[in-house]
Design goal:
By secondary structure, the chain is an alpha/beta fold. The chain is 29% helix and 16% strand. It is built from 15 helices and 18 strands. Strands 7-6-10-3-11-12-4-13 form an 8-stranded mixed β-sheet, with helices on both faces. It is globular and about 65 Å long. The chain starts with 17 loop residues before the first strand and ends with a helix. The relative contact order is 0.19.
C-alpha cells in the first residue's frame, strides 16, 4: 500500500488574482516568487509560535500569523549537509548520494534550482551551502566555506574567496536584499535561497545581543537527567551537556582562562575568538570575564555544574536566534515596502531540529522528536485558502516538488517527495495524504557517536532500528510517552503494533528503494 504519494494538483502560476498575506488585493496574474529561508540547527522549542516557554521570535511569528504553521514537519536525515541535499533533490539521502557530512554532493544531478531555471525562474543561493562542492544551476551565488564563521566571515563567490567585516547573520541578509534590489531581472519570477549559519555550534552572539537573556533562567526539561534505561544507543552517544568532553566549557561556553586546556579550547582561541576585531574583543571580554571569574571560583560539580552549563548554552543559543529573527524581519520589511508580498510565498525552516537539554543533550542526529522534527512556517498570498495549523505529516523531501508546483513546472517522476500545495490550497486536507514517514541516519563513526539507524513514524507510533555495531530496536507510543522515555519493543501486549510497524517500514524501504533492506531484511 502506497501511503506516501498524493495526486498532484494543477499548477498555480498565473491563475488567480494574487493578494498579500498581510495587505491589499492585487489584480495581477504574475507567477509567484519564492523566498526560502533556512537556518542551521534551529529547533521548534526556540520559536515562539511553536513554544513560548523560552524566547520570543516576533518576526518568525509574523510568517506563521499570515499563513500556516506545520505542526508535524520532519527531516529525512537529521544532519546538516544531507538535509540540504534532500531539499535540493526532493530525494532521500541514499538516492541523492549525500548520506553524511563527509561525502561530496554531486551537483550534476537533477536539482530543484535547475528545474526552476528551466521554468523561467531566476535562482540565487546565499549563505550556508555546506555540500563540499560548488553550487550549480544558480544565476547568482555567494556561500560560506564549510560551516563558515560568525565574525568577519569569508565567502566564496564565482570570482573567488573574499573576506567581509561584520556578523554572518547580518551579512547574509545584506547580500540577499542586495540581490533582490540590484542583482535580478525584476521582470522575471525568482527563487531566493537564504541560508543562515545561525544557530550552529558554538553559538557566537552578535555583540549587540551579548547582554540579552542574562537574567533569564530557562526551564529545565523534565528528562534532563534521563538514565537511558532500555535505550542502548541513547546511553552510548557523546552529546551530553553535563559531560565536559561533549560540551566543551571553553569552545562552547566561552570560559576561556589562561592555563585551562580543554579538548576544543584551541579551536575556540584560534577560531571564532580570533576573528573578533579589537573593538568586538573588548566588548566580548568585558561581558564574559566576570562570568568566567565567577565560574572558576565557584568550582561547580555534579548537578550544579550540569545545570549551569545548560543555562549558559541556552542563553548563547537564544542570542544567536534573536539576531536571526531580526534579520528575517528585515527581509519581510523589504518585501512589504516594495509591495512584493502580493505575489511571493515565504518559506521558513531549519535543516533539522535540535536538543535544548531534552535527554540531557545538545545537537541532533537521533530520530527522536526534538531533532527529527523541524520548524516549518509559510506566509501565503490570499489565493491559498488554508490558514493556521497544518497537522499532516510532511518532510523536507517535499520542499522541491512544492517549489516546482508553485512555479508551474513539471515534477519529475523520480522525485520522492510530494507537493504540499494540496495542504495550502484547501481548508480540508486530502484524504489520501501520507500516514507515515521514513528516516535514515548514516554518520557513524562520527562526531557525537550516534549509531546508524532507520525507522518509521506514524501519527502515534515510532519504530526504530539501530544497526551496524549494535542491533537494537525501539518502539514508542508518542501519545502516552511524548518524551520517548519508555521503549516498548519486546514487551507483552505490543506484538500486533510491532508487526504492523515492521510491515510499514518494509513497505517504505521498498517504495523509496533503500538498499539497506537487502542487508537487514524485515
Amino acid at each position: 500500500m502506497n501511503l506516501n504519494k498524493t495526486n498532484l494538483i494543477a499548477p498555480i502560476a498565473g491563475i488567480a488574482a494574487l493578494t498579500s498575506c498581510v495587505g491589499k488585493a492585487q489584480q495581477e496574474t504574475k507567477p509567484l516568487n519564492i523566498v526560502y529561508i533556512m537556518t542551521d540547527d534551529h529547533t521548534r522549542q526556540m520559536m515562539s509560535c511553536y513554544d513560548n516557554r523560552h524566547i520570543e521570535t516576533p518576526n518568525l511569528d509574523r510568517i506563521a500569523e499570515n499563513g500556516v504553521i506545520f505542526r508535524n514537519a520532519y527531516v529525512a536525515n537529521s544532519i546538516s549537509a544531507p538535509s540540504r541535499a534532500c531539499l535540493l533533490t526532493g530525494k532521500h539521502s541514499h538516492k541523492n548520494g549525500k548520506i553524511d557530512n563527509i561525502t561530496s554532493f554531486d551537483g550534476t544531478q537533477q536539482t530543484v534550482q535547475q528545474l526552476l531555471r528551466e521554468a523561467g525562474y531566476q535562482t540565487a543561493m546565499i549563505g550556508k551551502w555546506h555540500l563540499d562542492s560548488k553550487p550549480t544551476n544558480f544565476d547568482h551565488w555567494v556561500i560560506l566555506p564549510g560551516q563558515g564563521n560568525y565574525y568577519q566571515p569569508d565567502f566564496i563567490t564565482p570570482e573567488g574567496r573574499k573576506n567581509f567585516k561584520g556578523y554572518a547573520t547580518n551579512l547574509i541578509t545584506d547580500f540577499g536584499l542586495d540581490w533582490l534590489e540590484n542583482g535580478r531581472d525584476k521582470e522575471k519570477p525568482f527563487c531566493l535561497f537564504l541560508h543562515h549559519k545561525a544557530a550552529h555550534r558554538n553559538w557566537m552572539p552578535n555583540i549587540a545581543h551579548l547582554k540579552d537573556y542574562e537574567d533569564k533562567t530557562f526551564e529545565l526539561p523534565d528528562n534532563f537527567y534521563d538514565d537511558y534505561l532500555g535505550r542502548k544507543a541513547a546511553s552510548i552517544q557523546e552529546m551530553n551537556i553535563a559531560d565536559n568532553h561533549d560540551m566543551d566549557v571553553v569552545h562552547d561556553l566561552k570560559m576561556l582562562r589562561t592555563g585551562v586546556q580543554t579538548r576544543l579550547s584551541d579551536a575556540y582561541i584560534k577560531g571564532e575568538y580570533a576573528r573578533l576585531d579589537s573593538a568586538q574583543k573588548e566588548a566580548w571580554n568585558a561581558h564574559y570575564q566576570p562570568i568566567i571569574n565567577k565560574f572558576y571560583s565557584s568550582n561547580l560539580q555534579g548537578k550544579e555544574l550540569a545545570e549551569w552549563k545548560y543555562q549558559r548554552y541556552m542563553r548563547d543559543y537564544a542570542k544567536t536566534i534573536k539576531s536571526m529573527d531580526e534579520n528575517v524581519g528585515r527581509v519581510l520589511n523589504y518585501l512589504e515596502k516594495n509591495r512584493m508580498m502580493e505575489n511571493t510565498i515565504i518559506i521558513y525552516t531549519s535543516d533539522q531540529g535540535f536538543y535544548m537539554g531534552e535527554h540531557g543533550w545538545f545537537d541532533k542526529r537521533f530520530m527522536y522528536e526534538e531533532s527529527f522534527s523541524t520548524p516549518l512556517v509559510m506566509c501565503l498570498p490570499r489565493q491559498f485558502k488554508k490558514r493556521g495549523d497544518i497537522p499532516q505529516l510532511v518532510q523536507n523531501i517535499d520542499f522541491a516538488p512544492t517549489m516546482l508546483e508553485i512555479a508551474g513546472a513539471k515534477i519529475p517522476s523520480d522525485i520522492q517527495g510530494v507537493s504540499l500545495l494540496p495542504l495550502l490550497k484547501n481548508e480540508k486536507a486530502p484524504t489520501n495524504w501520507r500516514k507515515s514517514l521514513y528516516y535514515h541516519y548514516y554518520e557513524y563513526p562520527g562526531e557525537h557517536a550516534v549509531r546508524r539507524h532507520y525507522g518509521v513514524k506514524t501519527e502515534r507510533y515510532k519504530f526504530i532500528h539501530f544497526y551496524d555495531d549494535i542491533d537494537e530496536w525501539e518502539l514508542f507510543d508518542l501519545q502516552t510517552d511524548p518524551m520517548e522515555m519508555n521503549n516498548l519493543y519486546g514487551k507483552i501486549g505490543y506484538e500486533e503494533i510491532t508487526n504492523e510497524l515492521r510491515a510499514e517500514l518494509k513497505q517504505l524501504q521498498e517504495q523509496y528503494d533503500d538498499p539497506i533492506r537487502k542487508k537487514f531484511p524485515l
